[in-house]
Design brief:
Elements lengths: L5 E5 L2 E10 L3 E6 L2 E8 L2 E4 L9 H13 L7
Antiparallel strand pairs: 1-2, 2-3, 3-4, 4-5
Length: 76
């Protein structure tokens, strides 16, 4: 589990999160006391069907960009 706080920038806003767990096919994050799981599909990264809340696609894209920029190459 990472304690590094990352920022996803989208629509003139910043959303802060930490990575809980990640692999080549799945990323689990904590954003504002809510857990999100993102899964890699043919079309890119998407919400896991088990998420309580649905993250907007533009925010998912920003999270993936922030994770990749932080050096977690498994997301590419």
């Amino acid at each position: 589990m990472s304690t590094e706080k990352l920022a996803a920038h989208t629509q003139n806003r910043s959303f802060y999160f930490t990575i809980v767990q990640h692999s080549e096919q799945e990323i689990r994050i904590s954003m504002y006391n809510t857990s999100y799981t993102l899964v890699k599909q043919d079309a890119g990264w998407r919400n896991a069907p088990t998420n309580y809340f649905t993250m907007a696609q533009h925010l998912i894209d920003a999270v993936i960009e922030a994770v990749a920029t932080a050096g977690h190459n498994a997301v590419l």
